[in-house]
Write the structure tokens for this entry.
Amino acid sequence: MSILVVGSTALDSIKTPTAENPRLLGGSASHAGVAASFFAPVNLVGVVGQDFPKKYLELYRRHQIDLQGLQILPGKTFHWAGEYEANMNNRRTLATELGVFETFNPTLPEAYRKTPYVLLANIAPALQSHVLDQMMKPKFVVADTMDLWLNIALPDLLKLIKRVDGFVLNDSEAQQLTKTDNLLAALKKIHQLGPKYVIIKQGSHGSILSSPKGLFLCPAYPLAKVVDPTGAGDSFVGGLMGYLAQAKGSIDANIRQAMVHGSVTASFCCEGFGLTATTKIKRADILKRVKELEKIVRF
Ligand code: AMP
């Protein structure tokens, strides 16, 4: 089954303590879409400007990502610039230039409206809701977010959270949203806002799921070297949704495996700048790391 992914389609300029790379393909929908594409067909919804390099459109196509929902408008592509500190856990946003995103109004191609799996990757929550309004009875809807929307669009975000099956956020966002630093208390409060499945991401420490079947602690795949973690969260949720879309059986039966596959897909993302490492792998590489991870955590 296919997945609809809406989110940012961006050019990212990324600086780490050892290197700097301008105008890489980035954005939440690019990372999530490529990650999901290892498992299931992806319908991409986003917007880019006329400056968007053709080679990046080719990259989407190589991953069999359907681009009917990608608008190409006069103006500049969304540009994000960020810089990492020495430990690579802390990141500072240096610039956010909205460009064509400023007036983006995602209207879905008719063919996309029945897509069963919907991933509302990080983007303004009003836009995420607007996309959801156009969907016809999706099977499973997951939304991701970022601190910016908690700061400037909380009412929109709360409206959206009520309508989704799954909500994904990182630990500092969960703390900000619920005003508690206890994970269990935070999970409980987020469930009260609506979603049946809540996933809190903890970066290199993995993630935690709270669902009707209880808790699941999902490990991160241990890496000797992190080159650039930009997009790891998006790759995680993209891989997770991709896995669910191709799995037989219920969400509850598959969601733990889905998280582990998402976690491993995110590990590849961290091994190169932007999407450079992720776009070099095959599904078999993901499955191999999943097996290794299984051995590491079994007890
Ligand atoms: P992550 O590392 O998972 O937090 O995701 C990083 C990605 O988020 C980058 O590729 C950026 O292009 C994208 N991004 C940064 N700021 C925003 C924003 N305000 N809205 C949507 N996407 C953003």
In short: The mean pLDDT is 97. The two ends are 34 Å apart (CA to CA).
